[in-house]
Specification:
Length: about 325
């Protein structure tokens, strides 16, 4: 069983509030996953197990699971500790203190990272369109998860170079974000862009920025701030903090011929997002708005088809 299928298995019970069955399913991880998948997603598995144990009021297993992660040197998001809140338990407080030290160390050591995926038969004598795919903010904010949830395959087949940047702003092991420090985020995405342009043959008139959640906020910010030339942005499940720019900047982006598309899940609509879409269109900025049916703050099953349609819209 692949990890994505496994994850969907226990999340099915989770959304039904059947936490006991979710735990039973999760405890099979080592038996049903390949050795590589279990190793690659070890942090995810134990983190989610800790949450499910807590929801089942099995506090000893919660602490055992957190201790396993921390003993291996993995830091955990402070949100997990805030959710659990066993403040009268000495062991919990000790683990929390150890985790804070690990988080501090992770923040000090973090640097901008990125991964580049090249189309088949890449030829340096030809200029290629480029698609920057930006992770969200938080526990799953990293290259690996973004590639798993929004894979590059369909874009590579269309001849795009696909770039997955990873912010240096760190929440925990494998958990990064962009929008805590917007100036740093803009600086890092510009560094990433410049280095990709230096190393690969890029068509600078064919640059698309796309992102999920906090990354969805980030790509609109990068586009409106005109950190580098952008043909269009795709913002999937942005948050209520989506607007970090002025009307003047929106008009300037429109005058450059930039377009955009914002997508939300119908089970997690954000008032501020639709307000921004309306504002953009009132200013004459061509921005599509898509509501993904039967999904919340997540990637729709038909994302590949929707992205293909959006790219056609950008190219008109």
């Amino acid at each position: 069983m692949k990890y994505r299928e496994f994850e969907q298995g226990y999340l099915k019970y989770y959304v039904e509030n059947n936490f006991q069955e979710a735990v039973v399913f999760m405890e099979k991880a080592k038996d049903v996953l390949s050795e590589d998948d279990y190793k690659d997603y070890f942090i995810h598995i134990l983190r989610d197990k800790a949450i499910l144990y807590f929801l089942n009021k099995d506090y000893t297993k919660v602490l055992d699971t957190l201790e396993t992660l921390i003993d291996k040197g993995y830091s955990i998001s402070e949100n997990i500790f805030n959710m659990i809140q066993l403040d009268d338990d000495i062991r919990y407080l000790q683990l929390k203190k150890q985790n804070e030290a690990l988080v501090k160390k992770a923040k000090e050591e973090a640097t901008l990272q990125y991964q580049v995926c090249l189309p088949k038969n890449y030829n340096e004598d030809k200029n290629y369109p480029v698609f920057f795919n930006v992770h969200g903010d938080g526990m799953d904010g990293n290259i690996q998860d973004q590639m798993r949830n929004w894979p590059p395959d369909a874009l590579l087949e269309q001849g795009y170079i696909v770039v997955y940047p990873q912010s240096s702003q760190t929440y925990c092991t494998n958990g990064h974000g962009w929008m805590k420090d917007k100036e740093l985020a803009r600086k890092e995405i510009k560094i990433c862009f410049d280095e990709v342009c230096e190393k690969y043959s890029i068509d600078k008139d064919q640059v698309i920025l796309a992102g999920f959640s906090g990354g969805a906020d980030a790509v609109i910010d990068f586009s409106m701030q005109q950190v580098f030339p952008v043909k269009g942005f795709i913002s999937l499940c942005p948050t209520k903090f989506i607007k970090s720019f002025t009307n003047e900047q929106m008009i300037a982006a429109k005058n450059k011929g930039m377009k955009g598309c914002i997508l939300e899940g119908e089970k997690d609509l954000v008032v501020e997002v639709k307000e921004l879409v309306d504002e953009l269109n009132e200013l004459g900025f061509k921005c599509r708005y898509i509501v993904n049916k039967n999904v919340g703050h997540w990637v729709p099953d038909d994302l590949t088809d929707k992205v293909n349609d959006i790219i056609q819209f950008f190219n008109k």
